[in-house]
Amino acid sequence: MTPRTRWPTPPARNILGAAALLHSEAVELQKLTGEKVDTLQEWYPLVAAWSGSEDPLVADGFAAQVYDWIQWGLAATAPSGELVEIEPTALPWRESRMAVSGSGLVDQFVPACSSNYSDYSRGSGDITKVVIHTMEGTYAGSISWFQNCSASVSAHYNIRSSDGEITQMVQEEDVAWHAGHWDTNLHSIGIEHEGYVSQPDTWYTDAMYRSSAALVRDICDRRGIPKDRAHIIGHNEVPGCSGGSGGGSGCHTDPAAAGTGTTS
Description:
Layout: H1 10-33, H2 40-50, H3 56-72, E1 74-77, E2 83-86, E3 108-109, E4 117-118, E5 129-134, H4 139-147, E6 157-159, E7 166-168, E8 175-176, H5 182-186, E9 188-193, H6 200-203, H7 206-223, E10 232-234
Parallel strand pairs: 3-7, 5-9, 5-10, 6-9
Antiparallel strand pairs: 1-2, 4-8, 6-7
């Protein structure tokens, strides 16, 4: 009786299948250019094309996320229960994107006016939640508003719709005024997303979703925050409606689900 072949488990099979397809693309590119695709830097455009998106910003964002995993490492559990690990690899050719204090995924740090947040020295144990917001406005407008010293509002991070660019405005150790509920502000990090919840098809782009997911994962991993719905919440789930402008479903519906057409 012929022994049954032991096939790779699903995660390993997916990885091997993807590697084979990427290799075939590299072979075709070599035929066209006469140059062998050899270094990780030379593989970048092929990984971007692998995204399947015709939008160059989305494709580049996909490749950037893959290369973030290569550069900074990854440890994740597959649905089958297997642990998938990637050891960090130095990529000196990649642009350094470190924030003043916070996530290494940010593109720029633009400080909010000091009168729009509370100067604290929070440690990881003090930060237990991430609150997701929709700006109900534009990326540039929100950045400008948080710099306005009469605004009395701020968030730690802003994310742009078109390409997922991240601007940090408050250091994570400080308390941003984003939730309309002091206890939530005291123990959370706030992330604003460009757009209007009544126009999801216009503003809720794949690039912004990917950037947001990577940022939230990074915050949770560094701060020891469980990645579940009890600890990653929407502004509509924040308790209280202080002065009619606080958090909670009675005051806000953001971030809202794409396609709902609800308003904040």
